[in-house]
């Protein structure tokens, strides 16, 4: 009897684990970027060295993930609105981890101990892959 209880618990555990879809991708940002393109917003008139680094960084990430990139230049407020509405996947702009936008956007961990990339809130699969890439390619 005890053998069946352990087997039943094991099967139940396997069932629950297989039902999990971690990391979550509720609005399919990662999946859609893989299918069509990674939509990246760029804030103009920011530090050109930082923006250039971020653009190259995201292009390298997209290449590694097998994604095409589509860049959209607009002001910060409009890009954050588009990010909130899932019209963009990432926003670049030399943002720091204590940004005023932190209640409206998701953020990666810093790629250089100071600067972060913005992503839509709740898009954990995109965040998971971006942060894995950041860890491997952290700017010193």
From TrEMBL:
SUPFAM superfamilies named among the record's database cross-references: Periplasmic binding protein-like II
Ranges for domain Solute-binding protein family 3/N-terminal: 53-125
Species for this entry: Aequorivita iocasae
Residues making up the signal peptide according to the UniProt record: 1-19
Lineage of the species this protein comes from: Bacteria, Pseudomonadati, Bacteroidota, Flavobacteriia, Flavobacteriales
Protein name stated in the entry: Solute-binding protein family 3/N-terminal domain-containing protein
Pfam families xrefs: SBP_bac_3
Source superkingdom: Bacteria
Key words of the record: Signal
InterPro entries reported for this sequence: Solute-binding_3/MltF_N (IPR001638)
């Amino acid at each position: 009897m005890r053998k069946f209880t352990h087997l039943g618990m094991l099967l139940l555990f396997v069932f629950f684990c297989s039902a999990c879809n971690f990391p979550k991708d509720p609005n399919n940002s990662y999946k859609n970027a893989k299918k069509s393109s990674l939509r990246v917003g760029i804030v103009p008139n920011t530090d050109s060295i930082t923006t250039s680094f971020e653009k190259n960084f995201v292009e390298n990430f997209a290449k590694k993930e097998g994604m095409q990139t589509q860049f959209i230049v607009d002001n910060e407020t409009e890009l954050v609105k588009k990010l909130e509405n899932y019209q963009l996947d990432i926003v670049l702009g030399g943002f720091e981890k204590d940004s005023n936008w932190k209640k409206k956007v998701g953020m990666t961990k810093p790629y250089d101990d100071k600067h972060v990339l913005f992503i839509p809130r709740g898009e954990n699969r995109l965040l998971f892959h971006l942060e894995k890439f950041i860890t491997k390619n952290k700017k010193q």
